[in-house]
């Protein structure tokens, strides 16, 4: 067992103390820690199927959006609210007559085509970043470059982790695999559900091992390098992982910070003592360790799941 106590300064969050615990085993690094993904089947076939699944999800669907809007907002599950956010964003982004995403220097900022869509984005976004949301940004530590080294060297980065795109915020987009290890379905895993993520080799879809914080078994998944909305553009630089672009909403009611829709390579940011935080591409990440926050309502539950006594942690902090 490895215990790391990280105390962040007031520049990040006053009095925020974070604790992370890892238990490593060969099983946890199986496949996701492998130097080659070839043993998991024909990678090109897997990429093509994964791309189709991702493109199907990130396609405007007016009927599905209308069905979600017809229900009481408070009755929607967290994932249904996230889906409504995605469908609203897909309609809101500027497109040409062929429904392809317009990206140029004049579209750094844009308004949704109608006030109701912009207000809906604001409403859902405020829910997503609230204190009881599983999709809120979460404290984390990051190892870059080489996976499987978290027991051997200190982490490279630390802070409160979030995706720069309002379509993701505090979650990881993944593609589940079937019993034959082929892409099956797309999902969004809240950071709040995770203990750690161990990534495999680089690629447009990366194998990763998810270690959960709620008793579920570890799971090997595919993690897309790209934002799914990238497939709406005809510009190849946003589909090969080489560039990231952010489309900012001009106004979001009640939201006092800028939020954008990401296009291209997924970017993450760690909010820390650096004035602008630390920005990095998801392709550079080897391991993510989700950090326990003593202010979290799940603090005691997560401590016990990780095999530590929450009272021992509190006592160690006071010393």
Reconstruct the topology from this structure.
Elements: E1 2-7, E2 17-22, H1 26-29, H2 43-57, H3 62-69, H4 78-92, E3 109-110, H5 115-128, E4 138-144, E5 157-163, E6 171-177, E7 183-190, E8 194-199, E9 205-212, E10 219-224, E11 244-249, E12 260-264, E13 267-271, E14 278-281, E15 285-290, E16 292-293, H6 299-305, H7 310-318
Parallel strand pairs: 3-11
Antiparallel strand pairs: 1-2, 2-16, 4-5, 4-15, 5-13, 6-7, 8-9, 8-15, 9-10, 11-12, 13-14
Helix pairs in contact: 3-4, 4-5
What does this structure look like?
The protein is α+β, with helices and mostly antiparallel strands and 319 residues long. The two termini are 21 Å apart. The chain has helices at 26-29, 43-57, 62-69, 78-92, 115-128, 299-305, 310-318; strands at 2-7, 17-22, 109-110, 138-144, 157-163, 171-177, 183-190, 194-199, 205-212, 219-224, 244-249, 260-264, 267-271, 278-281, 285-290, 292-293. The chain has one domain. Helix content is 23%, strand content 29%. A hairpin with a 6-residue loop joins β9 (205-212) and β10 (219-224). The strands form 4 sheets. Strands 10-9-8-15-4-5-13-14 form an 8-stranded antiparallel sheet. The protein has a 3-stranded antiparallel sheet with strand order 1-2-16, covered by helices on one side. α3 packs across α4 (78-92). The longest helix has 15 residues, at 43-57. Residues 1-18 and 20-38 have low confidence and may be disordered.
């Amino acid at each position: 067992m490895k215990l790391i106590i990280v105390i962040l300064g007031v520049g990040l969050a006053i009095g925020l103390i974070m604790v992370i615990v890892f238990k490593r085993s060969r099983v946890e690094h199986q496949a996701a820690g492998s130097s080659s993904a070839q043993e998991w089947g024909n990678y090109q076939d897997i990429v093509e199927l994964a791309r189709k699944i991702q493109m199907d999800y990130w396609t405007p669907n007016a009927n599905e959006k209308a069905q979600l809007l017809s229900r009481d907002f408070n009755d929607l599950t967290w994932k249904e609210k996230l889906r409504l956010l995605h469908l609203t964003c897909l309609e809101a982004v500027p497109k040409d007559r062929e429904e392809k995403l317009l990206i140029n220097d004049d579209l750094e900022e844009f308004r949704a085509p109608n006030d109701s869509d912009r207000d809906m984005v604001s409403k859902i976004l405020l829910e997503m970043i609230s204190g009881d949301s599983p999709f809120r940004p979460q404290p984390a530590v990051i190892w870059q470059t080489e996976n499987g080294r978290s027991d051997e060297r200190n982490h490279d980065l630390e802070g409160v982790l979030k995706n720069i795109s309002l379509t993701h915020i505090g979650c990881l987009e993944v593609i589940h695999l079937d019993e034959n290890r082929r892409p099956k379905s797309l999902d969004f895993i809240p950071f709040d559900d995770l203990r750690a993520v161990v990534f495999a080799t680089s690629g447009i879809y990366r194998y990763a091992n998810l270690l959960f914080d709620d008793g579920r078994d570890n799971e090997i998944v595919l993690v897309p390098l790209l934002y799914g909305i990238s497939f709406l553009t005809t510009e190849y630089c946003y589909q090969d992982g080489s560039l990231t672009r952010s489309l900012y909403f001009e106004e979001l009611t009640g939201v006092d910070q800028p939020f954008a829709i990401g296009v291209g390579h997924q970017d993450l940011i760690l909010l820390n003592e650096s004035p602008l935080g630390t920005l990095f591409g998801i392709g550079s990440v080897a391991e993510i360790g989700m950090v326990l926050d003593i202010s979290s309502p799940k603090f005691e539950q997560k401590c016990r799941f990780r095999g530590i006594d929450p009272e021992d942690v509190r006592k160690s902090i006071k010393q």
